[in-house]
Amino acid sequence: MAPPTASKGKKAVKSQKVGRPGGEKKGRRKSRKETYSVYIYRVLKQVHPDTGVSSKAMSIMNSFVNDVFERIAGEASKLATYNKKSTISSREIQTAVRLILPGELAKHAVSEGTKGSDQIH
What we know:
Elements: H1 37-47, H2 55-82, H3 90-100, H4 103-120
Helix pairs in contact: 2-3, 3-4
Subcellular location: Chromosome; Nucleus
Pfam family, one: Histone
GO cellular component, one term: nucleosome
């Protein structure tokens, strides 16, 4: 018996890959890194309009803000748990700030937080 033959007059054509312009690879999209850089920069310009900040200094400030945020959020979470509450309110945040920040710094932070909260409500 003869082997099966391809249909007459048609050739098998390899599909060609259409490349991206400039030989770019599609790859995986770079994940966005969320930072406080924009906000730190805005505050810097309010306080010292003619002063710049290096990327290393910005990285340090970003780490500092993340660290303080985690400490306050963790303490507020514990306070809510102790009081058998499932929601962290401004009261827990305020108490956490008083516990974490030392003396005068805590007083200023609480007054600024209250001022900011009053502007929203």
